[in-house]
Amino acid sequence: MSYRLDPAIPMSEALRRVAFGEIELAQGALACPPERHSGVHNARKCLKRLRSLLLLARPGMAEPVFADLTEKVARIARGLAAARDAQALIDAVTKLERETKPGLGLGPIQSMRAWLEKRRHAAEQNLERSAAAEALRGLLEIRGAFAGLAVYPDNFTPLATGLRRCYRTTRTSFRNALSSERDEDLHYWRKGVQHHWRQMQLLAPCWPSELTARAEAARAISQLLGDDHDISLLCQLVSTPTMTFGSPEETAAFLKLGRKRHRRLRREAAVQGARLLAERSRPFAERIEAYWTAAASRAGKPALVEPVRQDNVVAFGDLRTTRAS
Known about the structure:
Distance between the termini: 38 Å
CATH class: Mainly Alpha
Structural class: mainly alpha
């Protein structure tokens, strides 16, 4: 099933269809042992998409229901985290090595890779022993829990509120990350950007060209911030007093390389983030709600909505979006 909400059906049913589709994809990804590693990655992506869906629908749900579903999804994701995180850092080492000229701060790379591969092997053994089976049991459990997923009122209204809240939080985390440049703030901004990316995918049927463009723009920022986060983790690892991956001179050179990468990645993320998040939260959510209502009306679900103000738009890509004020 596609990660898209259908404007032609009641909202609660549309949400359940998407949720069931993601659960089925995650189950299939984990069910084949020969493909277990890639399956973990794909299953975790499904779980992240479920989390974004829940945040979007949250204002229309009873808070205990939202909290219960969110915790169930998070528990499954935590069980799969070790195997995926170990591979992610190996991928980060490979990317850093590929993009850096030999000798420019790469001294600790080989010993770091060997340590990470041992860590991945241990995580994979645990995955085969118990983690994958536990995740599959958890997915079976949450399928039943998601069968009762519903929003009230059963239309786009609660999702418009959820979209506004998520988008506003992401704009705030963007400003915080720019001002502090702390790893924690940048990581929090990245999580917000990832939710925005996936929520634009969910809502894309109401205006595919514009919202797909926004989803791709958010995905690109997420990648930049993900690379930045991986560099931070590698720098923390190489700086750990109990770990020795190279001489003091090699370690210092690696950290210098990390700082240089941080500056480049954060500068580009800031430029792209300012463009993506230029619009204020209320007009943004109202505009998307107008798009959705029009799409639902065309699909046979008539609804009244006030038109978007035409004196408050700026270009986004080759389309038009509301101007930040």
